[in-house]
Structure to design on (558 residues):
């Protein structure tokens, strides 16, 4: 029975109605239903509701989630003339002990009466210890229900993660499809994200510069906010974009469509983890970020000098970051471009070498097809044996022949991992390049093609070609020593940095067997997608392009 209670004419009251999920609205706990019951209860009691809180918030112990509840408590304390607070039922008021203490404080020290419109229960100073004990029990039951819901939710989300389903809101670049409950790529955002990864992978951008560029292009988050530095930094470090995701500290393989590949993500992580910030080429000097000083190891950068009669000259010199040294050469840009001709000339290949490599490629293509077929057959036999083993294990468990369930689970995990590994190897073995021989032959023509393009290009176009054939050039006196990229390190003749591979010379060959030829083919990756992977287009397409288009293709290639 509720404690004795005397109604004062038109006493003031507060009404607090709450839901924490849409499912609760469907179960009869909707905000409108609670509001209706609250006003009907106040009418029967003769109360005037002077203020109402109608909110959707959690009742768990979180100050961020219980903003409205805290506002209601403070408002009640600030207005002693308000004697009554109406809730729907106990768990609409609170599901934790901390908020229960706030309610007891209102009862004991602020002379408030707590009403529950659905159960017609009243708690105030006149309540007996038994009544307050029942309130404690009701709050404990509500807390137990909340804990059970939280535990089941966590278990469900973990199960989704193990199935490769991201159990949360879609990150930038994706949207949640409510119909299929799957993540789908947001094409406009994905385009910006791919561009951000590609640009950061070059090492020529900082996060701040890149964020400003994305803001300028009006890239926005799922909530419509502009992409800032912190958002971009989170995106660039998030494995979600190459197909994985992290949940509760563990990384899972997702079943969503990736926006970038793993190689691009790894390159970006290397740039982000560098101790030095990437150098930003603000004046767009053609040969910046290309040359290292052979005296001290610092960068060689461009600088503009203004001479009389309104003439501007571009020079390159050591940055002297480690202190000045005797050899302080200032090299004009046109002279430096002339010095680069020798490293570019060194990657040319002779007709004898081309003929010799054609023979090696033909042998590799023939032997590789046979070897691949044999390997695929062996892997398929191993997969069949592994599947038979796990099927026998399932049958024995169903027939009760296995008493040690822990050992059975360990064997099941072992067999499953073996099957997944074999399937991955089979998938890789089945991936063949039908243009293996054609791609290899086309690749042999690339060095001579770039050599002719270099001489006809502008300084900016020459810089693009130089970056493609070598990762660095070391300036020693009046000579440049190149650290060639693959496959140009195979073709290069003469000195390179730090080492150089001899190439076909008069009366001498560099390989002693067909095995060496096969190794070389594998080394410079004339396989899989061949040079389309490196240049972004087949060589026959490049040869048909005019010079500016060819240089542009090289500039945008990964």
């Amino acid at each position: 029975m509720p404690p004795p209670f005397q109604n004062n004419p038109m006493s003031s009251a507060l009404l607090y109605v709450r839901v924490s999920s849409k499912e609760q609205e469907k179960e009869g706990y909707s905000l409108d239903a609670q509001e209706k019951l609250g006003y009907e209860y106040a009418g029967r009691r003769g109360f005037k509701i002077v203020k109402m809180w109608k909110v959707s918030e959690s009742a768990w112990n979180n100050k961020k989630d219980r903003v409205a509840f805290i506002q209601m408590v403070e408002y009640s304390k600030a207005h002693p003339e308000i004697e009554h607070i109406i809730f729907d039922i106990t768990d609409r008021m609170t599901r934790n002990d901390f908020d229960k203490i706030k309610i007891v404080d209102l009862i004991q020290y602020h002379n408030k009466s707590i009403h529950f419109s659905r159960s017609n229960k009243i708690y105030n100073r006149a309540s007996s210890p038994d009544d307050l004990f029942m309130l404690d029990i009701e709050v404990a039951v509500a807390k137990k229900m909340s804990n059970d819901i939280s535990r089941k939710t966590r278990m469900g989300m973990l199960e989704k993660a193990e199935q490769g389903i991201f159990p949360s809101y879609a990150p930038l670049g994706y949207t949640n499809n409510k119909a299929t409950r799957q993540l789908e790529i947001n094409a406009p955002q994905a385009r910006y994200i791919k561009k951000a990864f590609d640009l950061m992978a070059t090492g020529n951008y900082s996060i701040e510069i890149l964020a400003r560029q994305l803001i300028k292009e009006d890239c926005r988050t799922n909530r419509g906010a502009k992409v800032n530095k912190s958002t971009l930094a989170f995106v660039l470090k998030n494995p979600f974009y190459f197909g994985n995701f992290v949940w509760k500290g563990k990384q899972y393989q997702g079943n969503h469509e990736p926006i970038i590949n793993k190689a691009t993500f790894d390159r970006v992580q290397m740039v982000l983890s560098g101790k030095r910030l990437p150098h930003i080429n603000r004046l767009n000097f053609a040969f910046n970020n290309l040359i290292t000083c052979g005296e001290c190891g610092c960068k060689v950068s461009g600088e503009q000098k203004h001479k009389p009669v309104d003439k501007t000259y571009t020079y390159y010199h050591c940055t002297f970051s480690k202190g000045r040294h005797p050899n302080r050469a200032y090299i004009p840009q046109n002279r430096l471009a002339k010095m680069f001709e020798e490293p570019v000339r060194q990657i040319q290949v002779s007709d004898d070498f081309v003929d010799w490599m054609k023979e090696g490629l033909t042998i590799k293509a023939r032997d590789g097809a046979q070897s691949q077929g044999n390997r695929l057959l062996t892997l398929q036999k191993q997969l069949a044996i592994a599947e038979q083993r796990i099927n026998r294990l399932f049958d024995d468990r169903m027939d009760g022949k296995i008493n040690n369930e822990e050992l059975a689970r360990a064997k099941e995990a072992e067999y499953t991992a073996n099957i997944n590994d074999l399937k991955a190897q089979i998938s890789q073995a089945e991936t063949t390049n039908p243009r293996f021989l054609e791609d290899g032959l086309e690749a042999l023509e690339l060095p001579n093609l770039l050599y002719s393009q270099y001489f006809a290009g502008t300084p900016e176009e020459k810089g693009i070609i130089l970056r493609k054939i070598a990762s660095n050039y070391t300036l020693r006196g009046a000579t440049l020593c190149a650290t060639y990229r693959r496959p140009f390190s195979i073709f290069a003749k003469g000195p390179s940095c730090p080492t150089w591979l001899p190439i076909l010379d008069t009366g001498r060959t560099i390989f002693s067997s067909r095995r060496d030829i096969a190794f070389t083919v594998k080394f410079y990756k004339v396989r899989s997608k061949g040079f389309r992977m490196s240049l972004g287009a087949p060589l026959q397409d490049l040869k048909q392009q005019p010079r500016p288009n060819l240089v542009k293709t090289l500039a945008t290639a990964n």
